[in-house]
Write the structure tokens for this entry.
Amino acid sequence: MGERKEKSQFSGEGGFEPYTFQVTPELNEQYLYALQDYHPRYLEERDSGFPWVHPGLLLNHSNLTRSPSFGLEAGMAGVHAKEEVEFLNPGKVGKKFRVTWKVVEEYEKRDKLYTVIEALIVDEGGTEIMRRRTHGVITKGQK
Amino acid sequence: MRKLTPDTKVGVEFTGKSKTVSETRVFAFSGGRFDAPGWPVKNIHTDLEYARSCGLQTRSVSATQYMGYLVELMIDLFGETWLSHGKMELKFIAIVDVGDRLVSKAVVTSKESADSHTKFTLDIWCENQYGKKVALGTATGLI
């Protein structure tokens, strides 16, 4: 595991450590419950032999906060401001997925620093599943 | 649910399922795996004190949770192939609190012939029980 980043912003030197996770049927069903979406495509075998992973699970698991090397000081949190998503292929239950991130832009708006992060989700066979560009900002509590 | 067809006209509006973002569903989405020690994890989505310590007035439901609602509507409109070519752009313009009731909506803003397909562009948004938009943007897909 890489060095944990204790920074006041999303960006950091050296990039962020990739995150690998496996979607079991139980984890997928947890998200079906959360999203109130029990469509059979997520529960029954498809032509490929696997049910599909709910895209909401993949979105949640590709947030930068999932990177093992991401961290913020106490009293700070990342807030999602804007998002662009490209859906490339459905994910399949039982597979492992790998998420990589890179900082592509930083900009100021209303005295706040926004960071644009690109995320790419790829499955264990190398199939690209989803590409995201997330604009995030840090919120801080009073010290 | 009415699905998009090549004959669907600009201006036609679609409404997704109404969903209450209950505490248990937020925990399921943002609290980590059900079987993880200490579940649910404390973060700005699951814990009021934690959220306040980060400068937020209340718990803030993860934007990826209601992005999941919008994805469900897009698949209802475009079909499952949307997960292999669809795009979505969103801005998150208001906090979604635990217990809010959200509904996803879409309106056709343009359509054009592209090869053997019809490309649709939709304005999409999620609104809460007060009719206030919490996320808005556009989506594109092929029929």
Notes: The longest strand of chain A covers residues 96-109. Chain A is about 10% helix and 40% strand.
